[in-house]
Amino acid sequence: MMIARVIFLIWISILTCLSSWFFELSFAISFAFVTVLIFLGHLITLDEDFKGSWSNPEGKSIILKQSIIELIIKLLFSVLVWWLVLSFPILHKYGI
């Protein structure tokens, strides 16, 4: 499971760098968009963690609680990144 997360993080980093280059955006804006995509992807698949669903066939409530906590953390991280990008426009000058 840990290897899959590392591979996913590498893929996200590559995707962010390529999108920055292709759309001629700063890395900070591309990274901010990627955080939104990660949050939305988790939100869309949240129903799979409900009792009796695909990721939770045994109906354990802890799985849903952990998923909701992860979702909240992703939302807070995305808000923090967007706040930094919009509050400090000087970052764009350096391509960060």
> Nearest-angstrom radius of gyration?
16 Å
Strand content: under 5%
Largest sheet: none
Helix content: over 70%
- Succession of helices and strands: HHHH
Q: Estimate the global geometry from the Cα principal axes.
A: elongated
Number of strands: 0
Model regions low in confidence, pLDDT < 50 over at least 5 residues: none
The figure for the number of domains is 1
Which structural class is indicated by helix and strand composition? mainly alpha
Give a brief rundown of this model.
With 96 residues, this protein is mostly helical.
Overview of this structure, please?
- The protein has 96 residues and is mostly helical.
- The chain has one domain.
- The chain is 74% helix and 0% strand.
- It is built from 4 helices and no strands.
- The relative contact order is 0.13.
What topology emerges from the helices and strands here?
Layout lengths: L1 H22 L3 H18 L16 H27 L2 H4 L3
Task: Looking at this protein, list some descriptive labels.
mainly alpha; 96 residues; 4 helices
